[in-house]
Amino acid sequence: MPPARRAVLGAGLAAPLLGTPALTACGGRSWDDLPDARLTIATGNPGGVFHRYGEALAEVFAERLGLGVRTRGTNASIDNVREVSQRVSDIGFTLADVAADARRGRGEFREPVDIVAMARAYDSFVHLVVRADSGIRSLEDLRGRRVSLGATGSGTRGIAWRVVRAAGLADEDIEQIAETLQESADAIAQDTLDAFFFVSGLPNTAVLRLSEQVPIRLVPLGTMAPRLARDHGAEFSRSSIPASTYGLERAVDTVSVQNHVLVRPDLDDDLVYALTRVMFEEQPAIEELAPGLRQPNVGTAIYTSPLPLHPGALRYYREQR
């Protein structure tokens, strides 16, 4: 085990081993003894991975734990952080750079926000989508173009601006459009928009469906990764979107950013322990509901810095040593 992981998991005593999986939660409480909770999961845009994952988790949590669970569609990261911190929703998904901004009181957040994590999830990839016959082949080519930077309240919008400015473009250099993912995809299909940004896990359903309507390309962004990491944090790294994801001619060099599953810090420890356990133990059921979605890995799920882990989630991870 890496030293950093031992340090995170080693604080305090490990919890006892599990009893009968279907009946007993850690510490002797059965699933039937969990608080009679009704949970709300803040997800994201229809067609995005946050939305698909949230819908699948809601169904599995409800079936496995006998809880009332509903989802709320949002514009994703910034909205979700606000919803969880304000107790409008109990669970949510966010890009790690938004979480870092919220925790530190910067960017869209004027003061630090009280949020904690249940897990680090899959990574998201920055998509800059254009039609295949477009003359846009680099960020510089966005000058004078109609570009959707993502909906207000979305993590996509914040990252899109960071990418654009890292490339040396100013606000007035592009015609800015604020549209949802589906609105942007529809506009590309109708040839009324030149390009759109979206930050998502793979594959993104809306982008995949768009690729089946009209030929598309993804503009390479990977050279922006070092500057983004230097200016905004280690949450950013250089990555690649495989060609097979959207039927492209070749893999696309781009930027990726970590994601976190948020949870209200005041939720019952045993409830969060149970939610965390189900999130990992029921991954085959989640795969059936959301095929192809990359799910959290228990070996890396604890790496949620700068967000602390909820005590209930941490208890589960200690058992996995």
UniProtKB/TrEMBL annotation:
Signal peptide: none
Gene3D superfamilies: Periplasmic binding protein-like II
Top-level taxonomy: Bacteria, Bacillati, Actinomycetota, Actinomycetes, Micrococcales
Entries under NCBIfam families matching the protein: TRAP_TAXI (TIGR02122)
The name this protein goes by in its record: TAXI family TRAP transporter solute-binding subunit
